[in-house]
Amino acid sequence: MDDLFDFINNGETWVESISDDAVVLRQFLSNRSAELSATIKDIEQQAPFRHMKTAGGFTMSAAITGCGDYGWISDRRGYRYSKVDPITEQPWPEMPKLLFDIGQQCALEAGYKDFKPDACLINRYAPKSKMSLHQDKDEKDFTAPIVSVSLGVPATFLFGGAQRSDKTIKVPVSHGDVVVWGGESRLFFHGVSPIKPSYHPFWGDNRINITFRTAG
Ligand code: MD6
Ligand code: FE
Questions:
Q1: How many domains does the chain have?
Q2: Residues in the chain with pLDDT values less than 50
Q3: pLDDT (tens digit, 9 = 90+) per residue, 134-153?
Q4: Domain holding 136: CATH number?
Q5: In angstroms, rounded to a whole number, what is the distance separating the alpha carbons of residues 26 and 154?
Q6: What is the pLDDT of residue 58?
Q7: pLDDT reported for residue 1
Q8: How many CB atoms lie within 10 A of CB 2?
Q9: pTM of the model
Q10: Which of 12, 82, 125, 167 could form a disulfide with 129 if both were Cys (CB 3.0 to 4.6 A apart)?
Q11: Are 19 and 28 a contacting pair, CB within 8 Å?
């Protein structure tokens, strides 16, 4: 089924600019579901998806896991990166070469040379899950971009400016699209609107988002 879906895309990819130094690489990863799902299954066996708490006491609706030297965590003490998974009390799973290479290649396509992601967050959104407007500012190196891969059901990615109050644009992201932001837009506010119930032939009713960062 996934082969059929991906075949319709016929290998067509294109690049859209959405803001200062921010692009969407359309359909870049639409043919990679089988290998990516096997890789994610392997990671979640070592570091399960979990719903983290925020400092304000809310539970995040997206389920999160990760791999690489650093994992992003949130709890009553706030957001930060940790070398240890607080659930297993072990280091996060190593970042598979497949993921590292995908992160690096997507950055290169967007004009960022030598991107070396050391943190890979994997978010799973069930229908109605969302991600509130936020900045990714816990990383040490803001010269490195953020690479954000969308798989499964479509979503609306909200992309704003340097201030929370700046106007946001709605960027539809569908299976295989990759958003890359850096440079001028590296600290821009962004989020994800509640996922509308829909169905993807490979991923069912889930949206998966994989983000690559240089955290340490
Ligand atoms: C997305 N995710 O799911 C965007 N940022 O399309 C994020 O912006 C994000 O999922 C920081 C931490 C976790 C995330
Ligand atoms: Fe983010």
A1: 1
A2: 1-8
A3: 999 999 989 999 999 999 99
A4: 2.60.120.590
A5: 13
A6: 94
A7: 40
A8: 17
A9: 0.93
A10: 125
A11: no
3-class DSSP assignment, residue 175: coil
Closest CA to ligand 1's atom 8: 191
Which residue's CA lies nearest to atom 1 of ligand 1? Answer: 209
207: left (phi over 0), alpha (psi -120 to 50) or beta: beta
> Tokens 């290479």 sit at which residue?
101
Identify the residues whose C-beta falls under 6 Å from ligand 1. Answer: 72, 121, 123, 131, 136, 148, 157, 190, 192, 209, 211
What token pair was written down for 4? 């059929």
Shortest-distance ligand to the CA of residue 158: 1
User: For residue 68, what are the domain limits?
Assistant: 2-213
Task: Determine contact, residues 118/216, Cβ cutoff 8 Å.
Answer: yes
Report how far Cα 165 is from the mean position of its chain's Cα atoms.
23
Please choose from 61, 151, 192, 195 the residue to mutate so as to test ligand 1's pocket, defined by most ligand atoms within 8 A of CB. Answer: 192
How far apart, in whole angstroms, are the C-alpha atoms of residue 136 and residue 138?
6
Residue with CA closest to ligand 1 atom 5: 136
| Letter string b/e over residues 156-190, b meaning 16 or more CB atoms within 10 A of that residue's CB | bbbbbbeeeeeebeebebbbbbbbbbbeebbbbbb
- pLDDT for position 10: 54
